[in-house]
Amino acid sequence: MTNRTDREFPLENCIYDTRCPGLPEPYRGKVRDVYPLNDKTLGIVVTDRISAFDHIMGEAIPFKGQILNLLSKFQFEAVADIIPTHMIEVPHNNVTIARRCDPIPIEVVVRGYLTGHAWREYKSGKRMLCGASMPTGMKEHQAFPKPILTPATKAEEGHDEDISPAEILEKGIVEENLWQQIEQKAFELFERGSEIADRQGLILVDTKYEFGLWNGELTLIDEVHTSDSSRYFYKNGYKRRLENDEQQKQLSKEFLREWLMEKGFSGKEGQQVPTLPDSFRWSVYNRYKELFEVLTGNIFEPEEITEFNETLEKILKRYQ
């Protein structure tokens, strides 16, 4: 740890790509590099990459990986009585050692409020989303009578696609008993995440969960209730803003999407991904840091990164 101020850390020390010559090539997701260590264990490196509109930005966000990884650790521990999680331990701020589960190819999104994708569908006239009914007469950011579950298929490339539970069962993607368990656990997790947020003056608006099977047992994988997987509103002033048809004050990646759209980028073919200025990269970091500190009640202390690939290789080889 160090006492230097955040801005004194060089931006070029961000972790964008990782390399471990003594290990198999990792699976590289939008944010995580996943190294298979053995038949039962994965080494998951949470990098500083950031994505929006299914595109990875060319510039990284300082310490974003550390914040996400530590926030996931906090939240995994907070839900461990509801469902087993893949987390074994966190030997470094950027690294999680996890159980090598068989992933279920469905993203399970729970929505408590008519916001984001749900609002865009609603505004277009739809009153059903992934088989879930949305009442008439609602306004943007209003709470649903009770949370709804809106699954999506996990695409290897391109956009995930909405899918209803009935279609999941019809296509045989998940068998019925397991799907019922997934639905039950998703709503329990959302309730717990909402309780944690509420205690800290926030509203958990919507979030996504990913599940896998570990020795046949349903297990929570990937991340949980983080700023990459979830949308949060500030509770203070929520009702006033709703009544006045004002935009909600939120902690999420939505501000990045808004900034990109202002620059003419929304992920459509032929559009150029804008360069993120250094000042904006630090502002993104501050948003992530704020959510971590509000949710956990802890101060985020960045761990300085030097020769990360060498450090990573030493860490991961201990678990082979």
Describe it.
The protein is of the alpha+beta class and 320 residues long. Helix content is 30%, strand content 26%. It is built from 8 helices and 16 strands. The chain has helices spanning 64-79, 117-123, 165-170, 176-199, 238-243, 254-262, 278-296, 308-317; strands spanning 27-28, 32-36, 41-46, 51-52, 55-56, 87-92, 95-99, 102-113, 128-129, 132-133, 143-153, 161-162, 202-214, 217-221, 230-234, 250-251. The strands form 4 sheets. Strands 8, 11, 12, 13, 14, 15 and 16 form a 7-stranded antiparallel sheet that branches. The protein has a 5-stranded antiparallel sheet with strand order 1-2-3-7-6. The protein starts with 26 loop residues before the first strand and ends with a helix.
Summarize the model shown:
The chain is α+β, with helices and mostly antiparallel strands and 320 residues long.
What is the N-to-C succession of helices and strands? EEEEEHEEEHEEEEHHEEEHEHHH
The level 1 CATH classification is Alpha Beta
Number of strands: 16
Mean pLDDT level: 93
CATH-level-2 architecture: 2-Layer Sandwich
Low-confidence parts: none
Helix share bin:
25-40%
Rg calculated over all Cα atoms? 20 Å
Largest sheet: 7 strands, antiparallel
